[in-house]
Amino acid sequence: MAVGMSRDDQSRIVKDYDVFLERCYAQPMGASVDKSNLKDNLQIINEVGYKNVMVDTEEQIDFLIRKIPFMLLGLNK
Length: 77
Hints:
This protein has helices at residues 7-17, 38-48, 58-72, and strands spanning 21-24, 26-30, 33-36, 53-56. By secondary structure, it is an alpha+beta fold.
């Protein structure tokens, strides 16, 4: 589930606004344990189409939320 939205809501915003849904490959559960989101991701991809879904890994998320801002602020040295 993305941002507390049901699959119906996610399908509706894709249809109404042609947005991209960002999904995580796995969900961190703590203590170095991850829960696979494969089944949920596959369901939403089948529902809205692959052209509107982006699946992220933890490494990609880290790059987006930490490394890019650090580089832009000149803090990556």
